[in-house]
Amino acid sequence: MGRMLVEAVLASTDCRLAGALDVAGSPAVGQDAGAFLGRATGVAITADLHAGLAGADVLIDFTRPEGTLAHLAACRALGVKAVVGTTGFSPGQKAEIGACAAHTAVVFAANMSVGVNVVLRLLDLAARSLSEGYDIEIVEAHHKHKVDAPSGTALAMGETIARALGQDLQQQAVFTREGHTGPRQPGTIGFATIRGGDIVGDHTVLFAGTGERIEITHRSNSRANYAEGSLRATRFLAALPPGTAGLYDMQDVLGLAR
Questions:
Q1: Which residues of the chain have pLDDT under 50?
Q2: Beta bridge pairs of residue 151
Q3: Which of 50, 143, 145, 146 is catalytic?
Q4: Is the pTM of this model over 0.85?
Q5: Which one of the listed residues 81, 142, 203, 218 is annotated catalytic?
């Protein structure tokens, strides 16, 4: 994902690569950030967070929750805005993101894909229209190396649906089924997770009614769509008035927020 982001920034006409970060001990540290493309950018990959953020207006972060929170603390101290595409946060960690956003502008989304965020808007409409007589199931598939389940995107889809129905996802979600489960409970939102191979990311929401079913599906064939969405979020932050703080998501970036 880091390489996708570097490539997208270098290909853009209105963004400049100010720094590139990797974990200490990575063989990439010290190399030119564009070396994998055969390009010299003059930006060396570093594990020094403050050095990597020097001269940056926005940090784009796709790491792990603990790393992201450390990065946001540095952004808060340095006045750097942030785009966060990391998933797997606990409720407490999400609250920490909100606390940082009180001091600097942050776009935080479970999925940076423009297409996925359009799907979230469609799910809001579908849930409101199919609020009675339809069972809702969310099926997601990712590569075998993904460490969190369900995916952040699947959870965001569930939260969008629950919110549209006036429900609390934590009260309505069913994450596992095994053995004699009995009949499906009305009003629940089921999740199913698939992990295997190199699947970038597939998500399907099924509204199953009597005599019909509606499926809303998004499939990612490349991580490039996450990079392009991240740049749109970066431009959104760059256009905010100086000194603006707050927590935003991709619905705000795309003008889809209700």
A1: none
A2: none
A3: 146
A4: no
A5: 142
